[in-house]
Design a protein that fits this description.
With about 130 residues, the chain is an all-beta fold. Helix content is about 0%, strand content about 50%.
Length: about 130
């Protein structure tokens, strides 16, 4: 059974940092691309970042470039999203997602590109 479990969310003041984790099981981790998405109330789900475990390529939304970084520990089947200089507009539920089909160009940021999803973890940034 495929499982993606997010952790690390919480309440933080603006300017602070959080590290989210996405622990994966039930599939060959090295073959998948893992993405991070977020969804704020009343807004569409948006792609934040992605890492392709097969070739190491990473992708990042313009809104978080320079503040967020993605990494993967293949030995632990875990992908991390390091979030620094957090802003109130980063407040959302953060989800990780996985696809075995790879990502190209802007496909990494589209939710329909992903097969499996976690339950999400809440990130709240206070001003």
């Amino acid at each position: 059974e495929v499982q993606l479990v997010e952790s690390g969310g919480g309440l933080v003041q603006a300017g602070g940092s959080l590290r989210l984790s996405c622990a994966a099981s039930g599939f060959t981790f090295d073959d998948y691309a893992i993405g991070w998405f977020r969804q704020a109330p009343g807004k569409e789900r948006e792609g934040v970042s992605c890492i392709s475990n097969s070739d190491g390529n990473t992708y990042c939304a313009e809104s978080v470039k320079g503040r967020f970084s993605i990494s993967s520990d293949n030995a632990k089947n875990t992908v991390y999203l390091q979030m620094n200089s957090l802003k109130p507009e980063d407040t959302a539920v953060y989800y990780c997602a996985a696809t075995p089909f790879g990502v190209r160009g802007s496909s990494w940021s589209r939710p329909v590109s992903y097969y499996y999803w976690g339950q999400g973890t809440q990130v709240t940034v206070s001003s």
